[in-house]
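Support request, priority: normal
Reporter: lab tech (M.K.)
Component: structure prediction queue

Hi team, I submitted a job for Protein GrpE from Solibacillus faecavium yesterday, and the status page still shows it as pending. I've pasted the exact input below so you can check whether something in the sequence is tripping the parser. The sequence length should be 194 residues. Please let me know if I need to resubmit or if it's stuck on your end.
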Amino acid sequence: MVDIRGGRELSETTKTNEELKQEETAEQEEVVETAETEETVLDEKEQKIAELEAKLAEEDARYLRLRADYDNLSRRSRLDRESAEKYRAQSLLTELLPALDNLDRALQVEVTSEEATSLYKGVEMVYGQLLAAMEKEGLAIIPAEGETFDPNFHQAVMQEQDSEKESGIVLRELQKGYKLKDRVLRPSMVSVNE
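Reply from support: The job had stalled in the queue. We restarted it manually and it finished. Here are the results:
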């Protein structure tokens, strides 16, 4: 009995130990595989997180660029509207300058008779009203005679010599110049001292 049973018990115990070792080995392999699988899953998750963070950073940068473009467009549109409002009368005033010049020339004529004096006063009133209306819109006469020549406001058409005045001083104004607010509509045509 002991032999048979003992042998059986021994072989069953031996099998059990071998099975246990195999099971332990299998379990260890499973643990290693599970750990490797978990590491692989973690690596994939980290890669996915890194990709998503990169996409987020790219979209954030894109948003900031679009916002800056929008702000620039807004500012440019506002400046264009302000400029259009500020200089809205420019074309009309430019067209009226020759008429203003002709009225100014008419006022340069000396009158002797009473009829001519009344006509002169009428032209003077029309000139004053027209000039006042244009000044309301921002028109201003560019000062010239006696001023230092400035190529931004004056156009020299001739040179003269006057020893009493410094060089570069405007001696005569041949045609009045005008500006609309801070923009020159027409420079003054002048004669400058050599």
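The longest strand covers residues 154-160. The beta strands are 139-142, 154-160, 170-175, 177-180, 183-186, 188-193. Let us know if anything else looks off. Ticket resolved.
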